[in-house]
Prior knowledge:
By secondary structure, this protein is mainly α. 60% of the residues lie in helices and 0% in strands.
Amino acid sequence: MTALVVGVVGAAAVVGVLAMPSSPPEHDDTIAAATARRDQPEEPRIVDDGTWTDDDIAYCRQQARTAASAAEERKHLAVSAGRVGLGSPGSDMVERSAHLLCSASRKPSHLCETYWRKQFIEAVKAYAVSFRDVSQQSYWSDYEVGRRAKEATGDTDWQSIADDIRQTTHEMAEMHAAIVAAFRSLIADGIIDPDDFGIFFGLGIPPEVAALIGDARRVKRVCG
Length: 224
């Protein structure tokens, strides 16, 4: 283990993004470092045998710390260049999200075990609230406007012309999509039951969790 302002305000924002001047040359290297995509080393194939070992725990913790460290470094570089602007998701949010994604995707069937499943369910509940708050922030709306402008114009320099750390926001958006896909796959496999998120006997699922569940339904039963 995804509502923007539209109409006149949205149109004005798009125009504003497109009209912003290019970065001064002296900032180019710093901004390039702050917005560069992180290389993802090729991972060895993992056999999902239902276990969750100390090595798996350490791996997911390291994945989370690496993602958080990259977010912190980008913010530091942007602050140094005076380009913080509207900001980006905090490193703590990035860390928790990366850990949740790793837990959902590294060995999904380990969540058949009651202990790990309960921890995962609580982590999803916390993530759903955190992502709801992130998606309501101005930098998230600004990122979405910029992304749509890029798609409409084919602009390849959109990372540099804005004042916020778009790459971290972009990676958070990609991570969220991956979390949702992994979470719904767990539901389809019968590993996670949407009723587990109900406030009372499966009823009253919080809207932020319901958004993650979508129309996912169990189609098979992986757990014994």
